[in-house]
Each structure stands twice: as C-alpha cells, then as structure tokens.
Amino acid sequence: MADIVQQRLEDRIPALEQLERVGLFTNKEVKSMLKRSTALEYKLHRTVQSKDDFITYIQHEINVLELIKKRRARIGYHFKREEIENPIIHRINHVFRRATTKWQEDVQLWLSQVAFNKKWGTKSQLSKVLSSMLAIHPDKPALWIMAAKCEMEDRNSSESARHLFLRALRFHLENKKVFQEYFRMELMHAEKLRKQQQELEQAKIDVGEYNFSTEILSGKLAEVVYRDAAQKIKGAEFILSLLQIAAIFDFTKELQDTILQDLQSQYVDDCMMWDFMAKRELDAAGAPELQSAKGRASDTDRREERCCVVYEEALKSLNTEAMWICYVTFCLERYKRKTNVTQLKEKRKERLLRVLQSTHDAKLLQETFYKNWLQVLLSSGDTVSATQVAITATQRFSQSVEMWSFSLQTLVHLESTEAGHLFQEALKHVNPKVESLPLWQLQADWSMTSQIPEDTETFFQKGLLSPVPAVSSAMKEKYLEWSYKTGGYKRARKTFTSLHEHRPFTKTFFMKMIEIEKEQETPKMSNLRDYYERALREFGYSDEDLWMEYIKEELGSHGNPENCGKLHWRAVKTLEGESVEHFTTKYTLLQTGHM
C-alpha cells in the first residue's frame, strides 16, 4: 500500500512545482497540500474502504481547483492549464471511477461525477461517464433523459441524444416522460437547423450541394415520435402534453393540427379532451382592438359562454362525475378572477350557481364544491339558499365530519333554527370514537351562546358521560369555562370540585381553573396549591413546564419561596427520561435570573 501511495504522491510533484514556480501558491502552501494529500491517499488504500473517504478526497481536490481558479483571476495568469489543472481533473475522475465501481448502486455518486465533468471535464469525458452510468442503471428513465439532454445541450450533438432516447425506449417502452422529452428534443433539433439556415441565408453564404431537409425543418421527425408514442400510450392527457410541447415552437402548426384531429377523433369519451376544447374558446380570435373596459368584459363574457356551450355539448354524450368536475372547476376559476366590471362579475356568479345546481341535480357534485357553493351564496347574501344547500350537503355526505362541520358553522352563522336538530343528526352519523370531537366542540360553542342555560347544562352533562375520552375531557374544559361565565367564581369552583375526581383530564382543565383563581382580587394560595397538586398527579411524570409554573407561583407574592427546594426535589424524583434534564436546565436558568 505504501508503494502505491508514494507513487501517487510523486505523480503530483510536477503540478505542485508548477504552482509554486508561476506564483499561484507559496512553498508553505504546497507543503501543506502535499501533507493533506498524503493523509487522504492513505485513507483510500485501507483494507476496509469508506465511501466518505472517497467523497472527502474528491471534495478536497475540487476545492484546490476552485482555489487555483481564483488565484489565476487575481494575478491574471492564464497559462499552463494542461500541466496544472488537467492532472487534478484526471485524478478526480480516477477516484470517481474507483468509487462508482465499488458503490455502483449509489446514483448520487454518479450524478456528482456528471456534474463535475460538466464544469471541469472535457466533452469526451462527460460522454464516457454517462455511458458507464446508463450501463449500470438502465432501469431509471430520469437518467436516460438527463444523459440525452447533456448530449444535446453540452455536447451539441442531436444525433447522440437521439440514439440515447431510442435506447431508452427499448428499456421503457411506455414511459410518458421519455416520449415527451424525445418529442421535445426533435423539435429543438428542427428549430436549431431552421436558425442555422436563416443565418446562412442572411450572410449569403453558399453551402454548395448541402441542403437542409424540408421535412426535418418542418418537424417530421417529431411527428414520427408522436405517432409512435400515440400508439403505445393511450389517454387524452398524454396527447395533450405533446400538443402543449409542440405549441412552444412557432413552426409546428401542421403538427398541432394533426395532434388535435387525432385527439378529437380518438378521445370523444375522455373528459380531458372536452375540457381542453372548451378552454380553447378563451383563446379564439375576438373583436379587434377593444379599448373600453366594458367592451373587453363583454368580449370575455362571450368567450366564456362559448366555453360553456362546449361543456354542455360534452355532457350530452359524457354525463360523468369527471366531466362535471371539469365544468364546475372552469366556472369556479372564472368566478375567482378579478374584474372591476360588475356585469361580468354577476354573469360569472350566475353561471357558477347554475352549473353547481345542475351538477347537484345530477347527484354528481363533489363535497369540496358544496363548500364553494355555500361560500358564494353567503357572499351574495342569499341566506335562504345557503341554509337549504347546507342541509342538503349533510344529507349527501352524511359520513363526512368536514361537511357536517362546515354546514353547521354556516347554519350557526345564519342563526338558523335547524342547527339544533342537525347537531343531533351529525352525532348519529359520524364515527363517535374517531371523528365526533369537532362536532361536540362546535355544538358546545353554539349552545353556550344560543341556548337557554338549562339546555346547555343538559348538553354538558351528556358530554361529560361520553365514553370517548377526548370528548369527555374537552367537555370538562368547556363546562368549566361556561360555569365561570354564567355563575362566576363560586359556580366555577363548584364545577371543578364536582369534576376533579372524574378522569380523564387534560392539563388545560387544571390550568383554566388556576387562571380563574388568579383573576380574583385575593387569590388563595391554598387553592392554587390544590389545583397544581391535582395537575401534577396526572401529568407530573412528563411535563416539566407544569413543575416550573408551580415553582414560579411559590416565588410569587402569594407563595412561599421555601417550598421551591422541596418542589425541585420532588420534580427530579418524579419526572422521567429527558424531562429531568430539561427541568434541571430551566430551573438553573430561573435561579440565575435568565428565565
């Protein structure tokens, strides 16, 4: 091993001498680099090799290259690159090859070598790395695409890129992304040739017998790719993605027309096709040079109406949920677009409400759209319709907690008399153990503000007896809060006393009672201690903040600082795991006045 390392170090000496001779590095820096390189070389030749050692070695050499580049720019010396940089680049590639041979499955390692060669290496080196990488990882389409792009953009070789895409399609016969990028590459190749032809014509250069192929210039190679892709991969969405790529280039009108004809003839039963055709009406030629805002708004309205006509035509033959979703989504997007013209805004709202009602009548309206429907009705002040839609939505999606919650919030906001009945219905339909808590909390808020005290009391007593721990705990908090608001301190304390032995509890329940006690003119420390002790009985083994609050209370004007030492001792004995360390840190900060 020592002989190999010595040989590697001797190979470095000519480049290091050159660095010192031309003034890029001092003698001290060269010695330091040699010492560091020696340590790294020995690590690479251990019996048990580590990937991190290889990465550290490579990063060190790249840092040297970056430093040389900065030093050259600073002193203005730009010679002898072959004698200085090239050996370092060759050495880095050699180490990369050793690493990728040993850890072939590490894609990131391969990509790092590609990135390095794109910045520092030669085009031929980059091509070799890509070929080696694809030989090991032919099952990854993204690598094929990246390699083809490198050939196209970095090496300026359309032919090599085409060969890579064709090889990729042998392994990935029906991969959409490979076909899309291959299609794009052929169009980019045609565009590049068209620019070359244009530049030659402008310069009036005679190219002799060489002629640019008209078919290639018009994108026929891309059309061949499209035909092949359309046979192997079905679906309007994929065809539309190719159409969108073709639309980027200004010479593809014939190709776009071909794709559009195939789309309309082969995918009549695909909602994506109809959605695209409808939205095309927005881009159709309109009235020329409309100056006034009302004129432009009127033209926009006509375009949107034409879109709706296409959607309506689609629904005659394709009355599916997916088609209705496209229609409603379009109307909703247009409704959300800002406009200062009131007439256009009202037209969009009417159109959206009409389509939502039609979709609902067809029993194909999704849950999310019911929420949008309610928001539109509420914003327009139509409380009667909003109430009706809210009730209907809960019937349509009776198992959805989100739908119940949103509809009930709407009814509560509208102060509807139907709210009380629907709260009861909601609790019957949803899963009580998993999803009922939000409904209980919502009903508690509504009952405290809208019902008479007797009915609210009955509701809380029912909630306290719930077999679901989360519901029972939450109702204790709400009940205590309501008792304080309606009956003051005495009633709150009576409520707390009646509940403080009935588990389960939450920390909030005890902290709420502590807050109530502290709000009194003369809070009793004995009561506060009782609340803290009860809270610690439930949560003292894991909540260091609770202990800290108790200690701060004893340090306050109503407490006894002598009790802090006892509380500290109890906390250290009671807390478990990392909580002990956290508590000790906080207690120390408190003692030193930093908390």
Automatic annotation (TrEMBL):
Q: Which SMART domains match?
A: HAT (SM00386)
Instruction: Tell me which Gene Ontology terms the entry assigns under biological process.
Output: maturation of SSU-rRNA from tricistronic rRNA transcript (SSU-rRNA, 5.8S rRNA, LSU-rRNA)
Query: Could you confirm whether the keyword Lyase appears in this record?
Result: no
Pfam families in the cross-refs: U3_assoc_6, UTP6_C
User: What subcellular locations does the record give?
Assistant: Nucleus, Nucleolus
rRNA processing: is it a keyword of this entry?
A: yes
SUPFAM superfamilies under this entry? TPR-like
Molecular function GO terms recorded? snoRNA binding
Domain U3 small nucleolar RNA-associated protein 6 homolog C-terminal per the UniProt entry, residue ranges: 305-575
InterPro entries recorded for this chain?
HAT (IPR003107), TPR-like_helical_dom_sf (IPR011990), Utp6 (IPR013949), UTP6_C (IPR056907), UTP6_N (IPR055347)
Provide GO CC annotations from the record: Pwp2p-containing subcomplex of 90S preribosome; small-subunit processome
Report keywords, A-Z: Nucleus, Repeat, rRNA processing
Domain U3 small nucleolar RNA-associated protein 6 N-terminal, which positions? 9-91
Entry's family note: Belongs to the UTP6 family.
Q: What is this protein called?
A: U3 small nucleolar RNA-associated protein 6 homolog
